[in-house]
Specification:
Blueprint: E1 4-5, H1 6-13, E2 16-19, E3 27-28, E4 53-55, H2 57-64, H3 68-79, E5 86-88, H4 96-105, E6 109-111, H5 116-130, E7 134-138, E8 140-144, E9 147-152, H6 159-168, E10 172-175, E11 178-185, E12 188-192, E13 200-203, E14 207-210, H7 211-215, E15 223-234, E16 249-253, E17 256-265, H8 271-286, H9 291-304
Parallel strand pairs: 4-5, 5-6, 9-15, 15-17
Antiparallel strand pairs: 1-3, 2-6, 7-11, 8-9, 8-10, 11-12, 12-15, 13-14, 16-17
Helix pairs in contact: 3-4, 6-8
Length: 305
């Protein structure tokens, strides 16, 4: 299971450490935060104790309405579950009772000046990506007109050269050679680089080029949602047919099925343009349009007339 430390969160979001500074190595393993509401009134049946606990104005103001003994009881009941950390939002100051309990139990208590909803959105977004299941594959990743595509095939088949042509046609480069895939949800697959290869594209006979330095910032993006898996393969005589629409094929990554297309290579074939056509065709299908269906309807109408 992937994890990050509370210290990582503190550094990334520039949080103020109020208590528990000796336990900043505690691990965060869940990708969603939690605001303890029912727990403060004693209901713990579904308490997600493994999540980062966010204390906004609502939670703090409620605690301030309690007597000292009630406050100690309710806070103590939550702290004994030892969540990874507590984060107080909106720069709230009246929390000495929280400092005392967190120091006693060795739980980091942190603070941010950001508003609760804004901070939760940022933190949840970061945790989802940082803790997402991931895998690495040998491929090239590009974004063609807003559509994330994996280019796969044997080494030397021309994946990087095809990506280079697409970049020159105004599309965006994401990763070459090693593509990191992250599962962000049941049907959402993100493609990105591994930092080491960021912005670099390897072209045979030329060597490495830095896409951003050579073609500008607009030619590169850090990540993209993958919706098409295109395999480049050598041309095989008599293997292609002229069906109006091939039966859908899929490739599975991290339990997510991605539409798969095979493009066979032959001198004279404009592979980059074929990939553009595949991307546009996929987009039209999402809108409910099928060129094959429209063609067949025209044929049927003509036969009936």
């Amino acid at each position: 299971m992937k994890s990050i430390t509370v210290q990582n969160l503190t550094d990334i979001f520039q949080l103020e450490v109020l208590a528990g500074s000796n336990r900043m190595d505690r691990l965060v393993t869940r990708s969603q935060t939690h605001r303890p509401g029912l727990e403060f009134v004693g209901y713990f049946d579904f308490f997600p104790m493994e999540r980062v606990q966010i204390l906004g104005r609502k939670e703090i103001n409620y605690l301030l309405t309690l007597s000292v003994d009630e406050r100690k009881l309710h806070i103590g009941n939550i702290v004994k579950y030892h969540p990874p950390c507590f984060i107080v939002t909106s720069g709230q100051q009246e929390i000495p009772y929280l400092k005392l309990f967190c120091d006693q139990e060795g739980i980091p208590l942190l603070r941010t000046k950001e508003r609760t909803t804004d901070f939760i959105a940022k933190l949840d977004g970061y945790l989802i990506k940082a803790l997402a299941p991931e895998m690495s594959i040998h491929a090239v990743c590009v974004n063609v007109a807003g559509i994330g595509i994996l280019l796969r095939g044997k080494s030397g088949i021309g994946k990087s050269e095809t990506a280079h042509t697409l970049i020159r046609q105004g599309h965006r480069f994401v990763a070459d050679d090693i593509v990191v895939l992250k599962k962000l949800g049941p049907s959402t697959l993100l493609g990105t680089h591994n930092e080491t290869t960021r912005e670099f594209l390897a072209l045979r006979s030329i060597g490495l080029i830095n896409v951003v330095r050579q073609y500008g910032r607009s030619a590169f993006q850090d990540e993209t949602r993958i919706v098409l898996d295109i395999e480049l393969s050598p041309w095989q005589d008599n293997s292609l047919n002229n069906e109006l629409e091939a039966a859908p094929q899929f490739t599975e990554y991290l339990g997510i099925q991605i539409p798969h297309i095979e493009v066979q290579l032959q001198p004279g074939r404009d592979v980059a343009s074929l990939i553009e056509a595949a991307a546009n065709n996929w987009y039209l299908k999402q809108l409910g349009y099928s060129a094959a269906e429209e063609f067949m309807k025209r044929v049927e109408d003509e036969m009936q007339s």
